[in-house]
């Protein structure tokens, strides 16, 4: 069978180019057909307002972290539209206290200016928000202990930067991929793979070589479950690697047993021999529930992969709520322009039909307008925020959140 990929495309990865996304070539075909029909009927330039909402969150999450809006801004820049959105990193609920679906973003302008961009715009925030939310839940479960994003190997490599950026914004303290770390402005975080120990042929030699060769600014963390019992290899590492910060346990499921008990045993043996300053870092199959259990058992840090990178997607939808200045919406949606307000003291949201009519929160505080006008007539009004600043916003809000 002859491949459909030939000529210049031969040998390329199966990833959309940036220009393909910007031009709407990754859209669903029915938007292309819609554009053709509206153009023929002279309706492509009718002014509309569309809102991005979600009916419910996965797994009964009480809140989620909005992420990916920076890419929505980039795809809409230069189009004759206005964009309003909650700040990236906002913790939000799917509905207000009155049950109205909460608009996390709204686009105002001729429908033809953004019709073909609905699919990629939703893709940006559906995926990134899911990853950021799961990262936030893992960080909340870990408390003050570090959580590192190890998930890039579980997804298409083209996704590595967005996985790591979203994980970091959600609260992860570090990310493992080189491109992801570059994007968030941090050094990449990591330890050593089992392959290093196997290639060296001896655990002690691998630990010594890491200590001798790798830049001394890199934290000394030894992987201690390759050939022997975790306790035995942890003590080998403590003896062989000066400045050892932590041992890492990545025990496979077929040998794992009760991981909390393994952590307790390793912690006991290290303490017994005076290595009280050596931490126990755990990775492999972790999620928010296991993190809580292992933290109670004495783990000092966590590497979380699949549960973050393969987090449940948040099913945002984009719907027209005004056409030619008049309220209109399909069944199940609330028509008309809505002004989003948020209580400054809690995570409660409400919408109003007028900006000068702020509602009161159930705590009695007057709510404040929560939206930001990010784009006006295609021109960006708000500069891009560093990932670190967005992350701090998330962590501040999480201080008032619960799992």
Describe the structure.
By secondary structure, the protein is of the alpha/beta class. It is 35% helix and 17% strand. It contains 14 helices and 18 strands. It has helices at 18-22, 29-40, 69-76, 118-142, 160-170, 178-184, 194-200, 203-213, 230-240, 253-256, 259-272, 288-297, 306-309, 387-398, and strands at 47-53, 64-65, 82-85, 91-92, 105-110, 147-149, 174-175, 221-223, 246-249, 279-283, 301-304, 317-323, 326-327, 339-342, 349-352, 368-369, 372-376, 379-380. The strands form four sheets. A seven-stranded antiparallel sheet has the order 13-12-1-5-3-17-18, covered by helices on one side. Helix 4 packs across helix 5 (160-170) and helix 7 (194-200) packs across helix 8. The model is unreliable at 1-7 (pLDDT under 50).
Layout of helices and strands:
Blueprint: H1 18-22, H2 29-40, E1 47-53, E2 64-65, H3 69-76, E3 82-85, E4 91-92, E5 105-110, H4 118-142, E6 147-149, H5 160-170, E7 174-175, H6 178-184, H7 194-200, H8 203-213, E8 221-223, H9 230-240, E9 246-249, H10 253-256, H11 259-272, E10 279-283, H12 288-297, E11 301-304, H13 306-309, E12 317-323, E13 326-327, E14 339-342, E15 349-352, E16 368-369, E17 372-376, E18 379-380, H14 387-398
Parallel strand pairs: 6-7, 6-11, 8-9, 9-10, 10-11
Antiparallel strand pairs: 1-5, 1-12, 2-4, 3-5, 3-17, 12-13, 14-15, 14-16, 17-18
Helix pairs in contact: 3-4, 4-5, 4-12, 5-6, 5-14, 7-8, 8-9, 9-11, 11-12
Keywords:
403 residues, elongated, 6-stranded parallel beta sheet, 7-stranded antiparallel beta sheet, alpha/beta
